[in-house]
Write a structure and sequence with these properties.
The protein has 3 domains: 6-113 and 244-311, 3-Layer(bba) Sandwich (FAD/NAD(P)-binding domain); 116-241, 3-Layer(bba) Sandwich (FAD/NAD(P)-binding domain); 330-406, FAD/NAD-linked reductase, C-terminal dimerisation domain (Enolase-like, domain 1). It is 23% helix and 29% strand. It has 407 residues and is α/β, with parallel strands linked by helices. The protein starts with 5 loop residues before the first strand and ends in a 10-residue tail after the last helix. The strands form 7 sheets. A 5-stranded parallel β-sheet has the order 3-2-1-7-19. α5 links the parallel β10 and β11. The longest helix has 18 residues, at 183-200. The protein contains 10 helices and 26 strands.
C-alpha cells in the first residue's frame, strides 16, 4: 500500500499557484494536484485593470509560472477543470466527468467572480464584466478613441478602468448609486479626492444615480437608462459592482461559511484537513482582533505560505495587515490596514496635489489604516504605527516635518 500523500489545490489563480509552490519550497515530496477552472495557467489579476488594459502588457509577463516550472516541480496541473464536489468524509474531490480523486489535505483557493445584478439588458452583446484575462482582452478591444464607455459602479475596478479608458481617448461615464466613488472602501474624504481626480480627467461621474436598464438594439447594448429616465448613449457597457466569493463548493461540503469560508489564524477551515486562502478566506486575524475577508492581491500572494505550513502540520499564522494598491492617471497609492468607513481621517501633506498620506484613526487616536499617495517608502512606518496599537499625537501625525516614528 502506497504511503505517498496527495495534496490537492482547488483554484487556479495566484493563491492556488503560490500554495502549490509553497508546498514544494517546504520540501513536501508527495503528489500536488492543482485544478484550474480557466484554460490558462495561473496568472495575477491586478494587470487586468491596470498594465494589461492600459498598455497591453502580455499575459506571459503576469503568468505566475511557465508550464515547464510545473513540470519540473512535479505539480499535476488540470486546466479547464472545475471541481464539482468536495467530500471531507471520504477525502475526495469530484471532477466534471464524475471521477473522484483522493486527497490527504486540500487547499481551497476558488477566488471570486463578478457580481451580476439583475439589470434588464445586461446579457446583451457589448456588456462586459472583468474578472479574467479573456474578459480583459475583450474589453481592451473596444477601447478606441472617441468611443463611448458607460461604467456601472465606482469601485476599484470601475475607477481603474475609467482611468485606463480615458488614456485610450474613450468618452467615459460612470454611474454610481453612492454619493462618492470608493465610498465603502475609503470613506467620504478620500472618496472626494478620487471624484475630483476623475472629473479633472474628463470622466462624467453620475453619482447618487440608479440604473434602470441597459438599452439594446438588435441584441446589442447602445446605452444605459438611468433611474431618472435619461439614456446615456454607449458603444460599450462595463458592469463593475463588486465581486462574489466562490464559496459554493465549501458550503455544499458542509464547511462553515458566512460571507466567506471561515478560517482561523492558521487558515484552517472547520475541517482540519482543509485550508482556504485568498478571496474566499474569512480569517480570524490575530493583529486586527476580528474576522476579515480581503479581496486583494496581497492575500493571494502571501497567505499560501501559511496555508502550506498548516497543511504540513507546522505551526503558522497569517498576521500580515491587509494591503492593496491602485494606479489611476498620475496617482499611485498604497493602502495598508483596515478601518471602518466612518473612522476619523487625518491627512499629512497636500491632498489637492495628490501627494499625501491619509490615516484612519479610532476614537482613541490609534492608527487603524494608512494610505500613501505619490509618497513612497513610508509603508513600513505606517505598518509600525498600526501594529503598535498606541495613541498618536494627531497634530504631529499631520505634520510632514515630524518623522512618523515620533508621532
Amino acid at each position: 500500500m502506497s504511503t505517498t500523500r496527495t495534496f490537492v489545490v482547488v483554484g487556479g489563480g495566484l493563491a492556488g499557484a503560490k500554495t502549490a509552490e509553497a508546498l514544494r519550497v517546504k520540501d513536501f515530496d508527495g503528489k500536488v494536484i492543482l485544478f484550474c477552472a480557466e484554460e490558462h495557467l495561473p496568472y495575477e489579476r491586478p494587470p487586468l485593470s491596470k498594465d494589461h488594459l492600459i498598455g497591453g502588457k502580455p499575459l506571459t509577463e503576469f503568468t505566475v509560472h511557465p508550464a515547464d516550472w510545473y513540470r519540473d516541480e512535479h505539480i499535476d496541473v488540470h486546466l479547464g477543470t472545475t471541481v464539482t464536489a468536495l467530500d471531507p468524509v471520504a477525502h475526495t474531490v469530484t471532477l466534471p466527468d464524475g471521477s473522484t480523486i483522493h486527497y490527504d489535505k486540500a487547499a481551497l483557493a476558488t477566488g471570486s467572480r463578478s457580481r451580476r445584478p439583475p439589470i434588464p439588458g445586461s446579457d446583451a452583446d457589448g456588456v462586459h464584466y472583468l474578472r479574467t484575462v479573456d474578459e480583459s482582452d475583450s474589453l481592451l478591444a473596444t477601447l478606441k478613441r472617441g468611443t463611448r464607455l458607460v461604467i456601472v459602479g465606482a469601485g476599484w475596478i470601475g475607477m481603474e478602468i475609467a482611468a485606463a479608458a480615458r488614456g485610450h481617448g474613450v468618452i467615459v461615464t460612470v454611474v454610481e448609486s453612492a454619493p462618492l466613488p470608493l465610498l465603502g472602501a475609503l470613506g467620504p474624504e478620500m472618496g472626494t479626492v478620487f471624484a475630483e481626480l476623475h472629473r479633472e480627467h474628463g470622466v462624467d461621474l453620475r453619482l447618487e444615480t440608479s440604473v434602470e436598464s441597459i438599452v439594446t438594439t438588435d441584441g446589442r447594448a447602445t446605452g444605459v437608462r438611468l433611474g431618472t429616465g435619461e439614456v446615456v448613449d454607449a458603444d460599450t457597457v462595463l458592469v463593475a459592482v463588486g465581486a462574489q466569493p466562490n464559496v459554493e463548493l465549501a458550503q455544499d461540503a458542509g464547511l462553515a461559511v458566512d460571507g466567506g469560508v471561515l478560517v482561523d489564524s492558521s487558515l484552517t477551515t472547520s475541517d482540519p484537513d482543509i485550508v482556504a486562502v485568498g478571496d474566499i478566506a474569512a480569517q480570524e486575524h490575530p493583529v486586527l482582533g476580528s474576522r476579515i475577508r480581503v479581496e486583494h492581491w496581497a492575500n493571494a500572494l502571501n497567505q499560501p505560505d501559511v496555508a502550506a505550513a498548516t497543511m504540513l502540520g507546522q505551526p503558522a499564522q497569517y498576521a500580515k495587515l491587509p494591503y492593496f494598491f491602485t494606479d489611476q492617471y498620475e496617482l499611485g497609492m498604497e493602502y495598508v490596514g483596515h478601518a471602518a468607513r466612518d473612522s476619523r481621517v487625518v491627512v499629512r501633506g497636500d491632498a489637492p496635489r495628490h501627494k499625501f498620506v491619509a490615516f484612519w484613526l479610532d476614537a482613541g487616536d490609534r492608527v487603524l489604516a494608512g494610505m500613501n499617495v505619490n509618497i513612497w517608502d513610508v509603508t513600513d512606518d505606517v505598518k509600525a504605527l498600526i501594529a503598535s496599537g498606541r495613541p498618536v499625537d494627531v497634530t504631529r501625525l499631520a505634520d510632514p516635518d515630524v518623522p512618523l516614528g515620533n508621532v
